[in-house]
Structure formats: C-alpha cells, structure tokens
Specification:
The complex is a heterodimer of chains A (220) and B (238). With 220 residues, chain A is an alpha/beta fold. Chain A is 15% helix and 25% strand. Chain A contains four helices and 13 strands. Classes of the chains: A alpha/beta (220), B alpha/beta (238).
Amino acid sequence: MRKFDRNQMAARVARDIPDGSVVNLGIGLPTLVGDHLPASGKSGREIIVHSENGVLGVGPRPAPGQEDEDLINAGKEPVTLLPGGSYFHHADSFAMIRGRHLDFCVLGAFQVSAAGDLANWHTGGADAIPAVGGAMDLAVGAKRVLVMMEHLTKKGESKIVERCSYPLTGARCVNRIYTDLAVIDVKADGLHVVETIDGLSFEELQRLTGVPLKRLLTAA
Amino acid sequence: MRQCSVIIFPSVIDKLFPTAEAALSDVPNGATVMIGGFGNAGMPAALIDALIAQGARELTIINNNAGNGDTGLAALLKAKRVKKILCSFPRQADSWHFDALYRAGEIELELVPQGTLAERIRAAGAGVGAFYTPTAFGTRLAEGKETRRIGDRDYVLEYPIHADYALIKADRADRWGNLTYRKTARNFAPVMASAAKCTVVQVRETVELGVLDAEAIVTPGIFIKRVVKIAASLQKAA
C-alpha cells in the first residue's frame, strides 16, 4: 500500500467536480485541486473557480514575472483571470457563498466527526492564535462541502473522530472526506467508504479509523 | 428665538486633498478606523503611513488581516497605535508584529468570520440594525450570541460595525469621489466606504468629472469624503 501524495489527493478530488460547477478551493492543500481541474476551453470542459477575496473564474498561476499584486487568491498567491471572469467586493463574494450559490467548496481539516462536524480553524491551544477567514461561511454556505486531509495525524491518530476535540468550524456540514487512504461519504446513518487506495482493505482502513465505517453498498 | 443650524454647501464639490497627511490630520485618539485590503492587495499603504506619522493612538482597527511583513498595517501595529483589532485572519506566516503584541497581551482581538465581517460592515453602511446569519452557528464564535431558527436553519444574530474613518485604496477617482478599482484590490473597500463617517481614499489617478464610465463606477462618490492621489512610486508598501 502506498498512501496518496498531495497531488494524487488533489487529482482525486478534482475528478468529482463536474463540468459547469462553481467551486471554492480553500487555502493550503485544497488549492492544489485547481491544478487538476480541466483547463477551461482546451478540453471543452468548464469549471468556474471562486475565490472569496472577490473573483469568479480564477485561472492558473501566472508565468514567472507576470504576477500582478492586485490579482491574488484567498491564499494571497498570484493568480490569473480566465476569459469570462469577474471581480466583486467582499459582501457580494460572501453573498455568493452564504446564499448557496457555490456548488462545492473544498476545505482542509484538523478533524471531521462521524456526524460531519468540521474542525479546521483553531487547535484551541492556549498560545495558539486563532484565524478563521472564510471557513465558517463556506462550511454553511456551499451546496456540498468536501474535506481534504491526511487520514492520520503525525502521531498516527485518526483525524476522523467520534466527536471533534478541536473547536468546530461548522456542525454537520461535511458531505465527503478525501484522505490519503480513502474517500468517505458522510451520511445520516454514518460514514460510508466509497473507495480505498490500492492495496488497502476495508478492514485495514477500519483499523486505522477512529469511528465505525460502513461499506458503500451501491455500485458507484 | 429658535436657532437654526445652517449647512453651507460649497458651490463646487471637490473632495481632492493635496496629501495623505492633510486628509488624515483630524483623526483623534481612540478612533475606530476601517482599513481596506486583503493582505497587501488594496491596502492603502500611503494612508497608513500618514496615520502613523499623524500619531493617533488607542485605535480600533477593522481589516481582514492583522498585518503582513513590516509595512502598512503591520507598521501601525508595530508602532503600538492599536488597542483592538477586528479581523478574520490574523495568523499568517508573516504576521509577526501582531503575533508578538497578542502574545504579550498588548492588543485585543475580536475574531470575526470573513463573510460576517463583510456583512456587518455592509449592514452599517446600509442602515441595517442587525441580521441573522447561518455562519458560525454551533461554534465558539457564536457563544453568547442570540440565535434563532428560521425555517429549517439556525442563525446567529450579528450587529453592524460602524467606523469613524475608513481608509481605502482605489484605482481612479474624480473630484466627486466616484471610484473604480483594480482586480482583487477591490475586496472590502466598497463596503467599508459606506460604513464610515469619513472615508478617505488613496488613488493611483484622478480624472475630470465624466471621464469615469458611469456604468463602471463601483463606489459612487456619495460614500467618499476625501480623495488623495498617490504617485505610482509610492502606491506600494516599501
């Protein structure tokens, strides 16, 4: 068994983003998903990337030397604008988010609970400086919330937990979890394993995961 | 006999100020100041430099972040002029000035989810008394706040954020204060412009009335009190 690396995880998430959808990619790991979405126009497929600092139609990174400090994404990295893209102010941008106009958002996480609670903004440590950004708005606003994270902490503990020990970003908001080991759906009756990486059995995944998992019975 | 207060309107509306210093000379200690920008995009660096030079202390600052690197808002923090900051994302790889003040207990932080921050500012500018948002329901950031179930969702009551001053950056302005922006430098500026008693804008270029396409003006001049043109070489944080 070889765990997915960051790019493999990003490619796997990108596979589930259908043509014509509007998606917001969180900062950090989720931003990588953008590298695996079809280039607009070239493939005949179109996916619109929203960035909460006021852009629809985010394009790829600019070539070196072509960066524009006025054109950045939510992670404050230089980006480009695709033909058809638009700019807008922050209140409009979050109206799009909160008003349920985004089809997907992809967020990183510290922990996800069996009920789909998300913790990704604060470790709760006494000396930790909290920063929430747009995560709480995205968690309640996007039509589907996809989480992308490593399955285990550096200490080998499951990041999928019965109850989040870290402060919540949103309650019962996560629809699907992508880890370096598996894809797992959050449903009303619990967590359903959609797929595991090559060489990893359901039983082995269950052994590594902090909560009971179900096999997805429907043929995908 | 009853006194009538008379408002004297100038015959020509001209909001252009010669310098950033002149536009900010009356900011008092203890003022609440909104500062536009998302990171360095749209940050009004020249106005912030002028505010530092002007010397106002005990400020309450509203910005998305809490300063990046050593310039702009970070420099204002470093100069210890800020007693409280409202923002959504203070912690960044280069927010060392904020981090040091926070860890030393020398600055108060009100952490606000980014969309709630934008909407609270918008509400202030729009005369809305409060609003219910689903954001942060069931989280630590909603603790102690009034909540309400409307339909099948739970909401948190949030109040407007007003300010004495807003310092923003735009691309072009005319003497009425009509503004256009550049790309993602727009971010919080239009809502902040509406929410402060006195909005001061730094622009790259000023133009004659009628030059800005009326269909393309993003912030109408009614929200702007003072316009300062900053030479392109001084637009960027040094």
